[in-house]
Amino acid sequence: MKKYHKIPKKVTAPKPKAPGLHPRNAHQGRYDLDALSLALPELLSFIVKTDFGDTSIDFFNPDAVKTLNKAILFKDYNIKYWDIPKGYLCPPIPGRADYIHFLADILNELPEKDTLIHPNFKCLDIGTGANLIYPIIGHTAYKWKFIATDIDENALNNANEILQKNVELSEEIELKLQENKNAFFKGIVNKDDFFEASVCNPPFHSSQEEASAGTLRKLKNLKAEVVHEDALNFGGQNNELIYEGGELKFIQDMAKESTKFKRNVLWFSSLVSKSAHIHILQRFLSELGVAEQKTIEMGQGNKNSRFIAWTFFTKSERIKQLESKRAK
């Protein structure tokens, strides 16, 4: 009898599981709208019933999103006052918190006696915007001190109002205007300054047309219907969203300038919105002669994000720096 060989079934490799929120991130799971409303009763007016019978807010309403952010800051970060001017970027707090928590892991290189809370650590926020999110999260979670910079004086005026109405922050966070729109560290970092880390949320787009098209595409995908330009309500000033050459050029320019401040910052870092940019940036950093670099993948719900970090210090040099800071 003729033998027949079974044709093996086609095996499809499982899709890699998207990383979840960092274990120390306070924003796991769905938003607790009841608890958030207790922290900020004005959120109640933005809560709606979904088609599935759940409660949510209208994420296409900028006032609803801003009020949700405000409630989160009141409830989870002990903030007494927070607001941003109309049209300014309103960042998603869970994703911004992930960046800070994963960065804390990178800095956690000391031996077994190490602790994640470092009141003597100092961080530089490049382009803090009007919202001041990274300094708020970084100081609340890890007691880090911050210098927060921006090229937009109006944004810094708003950030200053947040600080003045939250006294515990005003003593730990310093604001600096970057007067040179083509610089990142120059004019901000002095010769004897030392920062354990720098953070940055770079402009994503290279032009207004690209920014508008990207936002329209995002809204259409979410709503599965035609969205017109008057629905572009996520906020963001031109300097927050647009840089000639886009995100890739922005990060490359920042990395290039970082070589002149290689002994002033232990770990430089930046969010990277497009995964296709990662390999290009990794090669670029290698050509700059960094001692080490890390790419951290993050996941918030259905959205994946990432940041890249680089240092000009060897591991032994980093530990020596961290030990000296801890001893103070």
How does this structure look, described?
The chain is α/β, with parallel strands linked by helices and about 325 residues long. The protein has two domains: about 30-90, no CATH class; about 90-205 and about 245-325, Vaccinia Virus protein VP39 (Rossmann fold, 3-Layer(aba) Sandwich). Helix content is about 35%, strand content about 15%. The protein is built from eleven helices and nine strands. The strands form two sheets. A seven-stranded mixed sheet has the order 5-4-3-6-7-9-8, sandwiched between helices. Strands 1-2 form a two-stranded antiparallel sheet. The longest helix is centred in the N-terminal third of the chain and has 16 residues, at about 60-75. It is globular and about 55 Å long. The relative contact order is 0.13.
Put the structure in a nutshell.
Helix content is 37%, strand content 16%.
Helix content: 25-40%
The number of distinct β-strands equals 9
Order of helices and strands: HEEHHEHEHHEEHHHEHEEH
Question: Strands of the biggest beta sheet: in what spatial order?
Answer: 5-4-3-6-7-9-8
Morphology call: globular
CATH architecture of the largest domain: 3-Layer(aba) Sandwich
CATH C-level class of the largest domain: Alpha Beta
Low-confidence stretches: 1-16, 211-217, 224-234
Query: Structural class of the secondary structure composition?
Result: alpha/beta
Give the number of helices: 11
Quote the beta fraction.
15-25%
Distance between the termini: 85 Å
Q: What name is given to the CATH topology of the largest domain?
A: Rossmann fold
> What Rg do the Cα atoms give?
22 Å
CATH superfamily grouping of the largest domain = Vaccinia Virus protein VP39
Q: What number is the mean pLDDT?
A: 86
Main pleated-sheet profile: 7 strands, mixed
The domain tally reads 2
